[in-house]
Amino acid sequence: MATTPSEMPTGWSGYALDVLRQVGLRNGGARRSVVEHLGAQQCCRSAQEIFDGIRAGGARVGIASVYRVLDQLVELRLAQRVDVGDGITRFEPAHADGHHHHLVCDDCGKVEPFSDAGLERALERVAGRLGYAIDAHEVVLHGACGTCR
Questions:
Q1: Per-10-residue mean pLDDT for the chain, 149 residues long?
Q2: What is the largest CA-CA distance in the chain?
């Protein structure tokens, strides 16, 4: 079944599906569901959360398929793994823009994204001072959210 332009996802999801098609992977079923679900998220999600979200939307997909698709997306650098220190690997789209970091509540487990231009400049200064060229970085801050505090 061909996808018409009006049915084609836009943004990261559309780009990811195009790349997957270019490398010879079909864009139906689980692969499309995972890409579209992940692309609609504001922050990182675990494979289980992605699986649950897809199933709640009425699509039938297996957890093994979700993991397989996530591994493909990471391998193609379309998604990145996020480790917030709780032993659960999370995933989020790898955006060229819209880079963010994470705040983690150690009491309730809530994970929230944040961006800070000053922090980005400070990281660049530190790397430069030590002679490094940064390819990627992740900042995870731990504490208590406003509700748990």
A1: 46 93 90 95 92 94 96 94 89 78 92 91 94 88 94
A2: 55
Handedness of CA 58, 60, 61, 62 (dihedral sign): positive
- Alpha-carbon dihedral sign for residues 68, 72, 73, 77: positive
Provide the strand spans (E) within 101-144. 101-105, 111-114, 140-143
Residue 82 and residue 138 in contact, taking contact as beta carbons nearer than 8 Å? yes
3-state secondary structure of 80: strand
Q: How far is CA 25 from CA 36, 55, 72, 131, in A?
A: 15, 22, 10, 40
CA separation for the pair 2, 7 (Å, rounded): 10
